[in-house]
Amino acid sequence: MPPAPPVFRFAPSPNGRLHLGHALSALTNEALVGRFGGRLLLRIEDIDLTRCRPEFTAGIEADLDWLGIPFEPGFRRQSAHFGDYAEMLASLRQRGLIYPCFCSRQEIRNAVVAREAATGQPWPVDPDGAPLYPGLCKGLGSIEAARRIAAGEPHVLRLDMAAALAAIRQPLSYTVFDDGDVGQPVSIAPERWGDVVLARKDVPTSYHLAVTVDDALQGVTHVVRGRDLEAATDVHVLLQHLLGLPTPFYHFHRLLLGDDGQKLAKSRESQSLAALRADGVTAAEIRRRLGFA
Ligand code: GLU
Question: What pTM value is reported for the model?
Fold first, then answer.
């Protein structure tokens, strides 16, 4: 049988309009599909049911059409697949690799402050700068945890990082690729994230779990994403090994910075592609500006 063609995907969240940083990501996908051949899928990452809106999904489709990027028709919408993530959580639960956590953000902050005061040392933070979870709910017995769940207490599900690493028992790595070819393996250090959340209080999954499961279920072989997600990839590769899923090749593209030196973001109201289009900027100009003439 001939080898299956590579599968690429662009996976925006419909919580605002796309900006130039998204265009860079989508156009990098297009260029690498041009280099390696294969399929280019669109996936709508809409697990955040409060912030994601159908009109933003329609906006994403309109912006990508305008840019002229040849995605396969149709797309996977994560909110329609919560059952897939639940199955994976059940398998981790059976192996004792996740635990419920009832802490509020404030309780976590208080515990961190107390530990810093007690030790005189700064509490460790994850690669995004958030304090590592101090493990308050890790020691709850299963009877107590079950009682609080039955009482309807809101809770997240956390990966027990120490147990997960013990279950794997070998150093893990992934391979990066660029338009030249595949490169050297990169070792991962997922422990720097601590006990990450795999299901949120309001949603039965998290970004880390949904992105990992979907890349596998969609047969994605080449993940193209910004450098801001490079460290998070360690969590995804660990989950792939825990869940028996394949590890794709990864490419991390540069980030576009705004005038303030910060990366472009919807939350900072970076100028949207829709606004640029309304100002008369053409898709060809966007391509040129981003180096894809
Ligand atoms: N949905 C993620 C975002 O909009 C990107 C997905 C990924 O590459 O992992 O930032």
Answer: 0.95
